[in-house]
Design goal:
It is a multi-pass membrane protein. Keywords: Membrane, Transmembrane, Transmembrane helix. This is ADP-ribosylation factor-like 6 interacting protein 1. The protein is an all-alpha fold. It has one domain. The chain contains 8 helices and no strands. The chain has helices at about 1-20, 25-35, 45-60, 65-90, 100-130, 135-155, 155-175, 180-200. Helix 3 runs antiparallel to helix 7 (about 155-175) and helix 5 (about 100-130) packs across helix 6 (about 135-155). It is globular and about 70 Å long.
Length: about 200
């Protein structure tokens, strides 16, 4: 068990170091984005929602086709990948990089690697469920897809995407300021109350 934990820790450290090397040119931009996503200033959440709203209103107004939208998105990513490292180096400069910034950059990369491992773990568990309990897998997947299809039919695609993107952008700040843990604990308490009431009725 200890040997397995050591291997996992070594693999995590190795992948984190590789990711840090790959994102070296983006580190200043990543730290700036991290500060915004964690709401270091009180007006950051409003700015996030405002920028997202403007972008989605622009998409709604232009109404591009799927192919045009994908092409523009990939083009912007390519331009950012080419220009951002160069511009960031000139704007921020490599001599201003501090130990605290490096530590935070390491934490961000470590969290990204851990998130990737969680997604892979969920996928492996889903595949294991398919092999061990195919009926449960089939029922769960079909029910989930039907629910998603129904939601997509009730809500406009662009508006639904806007809600999802806005929530994902606000999620780090909500978690950082304790909103997620607070309301999760409240939900757990209410569920426990309902379960206890149900047990009393059954008795």
């Amino acid at each position: 068990m200890a040997e397995s934990d050591n291997k996992s820790a070594n693999l995590l450290a190795q992948e984190t170091a590789q990711l840090e090397e790959q994102l070296q040119g983006w580190r200043e931009v990543i730290l700036a984005g991290d500060r915004v996503l964690r709401w270091e200033k009180p007006w950051f959440p409003g700015a996030l929602v405002g920028v997202t709203t403007v972008v989605f209103l622009l998409i709604y107004y232009l109404d591009p086709s799927v192919l045009t939208g994908l092409s523009c998105a990939v083009m912007l990513l390519c331009l950012a990948d080419y220009f951002v490292p160069t511009v960031a180096l000139k704007v921020f400069g490599s001599n201003k990089w501090t130990t605290e910034q490096q530590q935070r950059f390491h934490e961000i990369c470590n969290n990204l690697v851990r998130s990737e491992h969680r997604v892979v773990g969920w996928w492996k568990r889903l595949c294991a469920l398919k092999e061990e309990k195919p009926k449960v897998y089939f029922a769960s997947v079909i029910s989930g897809l039907l629910a998603v299809a129904w939601i997509g039919q009730q809500v406009h695609n662009l508006f639904l995407t806007y809600l999802i993107v806005s929530f994902l952008q606000l999620l780090p700040g909500l978690n950082q300021h304790g909103f997620i843990s607070k309301y999760t604990a409240m939900a757990k308490r209410e569920i426990n109350k309902l379960l206890k009431q149900k047990e009393k009725k059954n008795q």
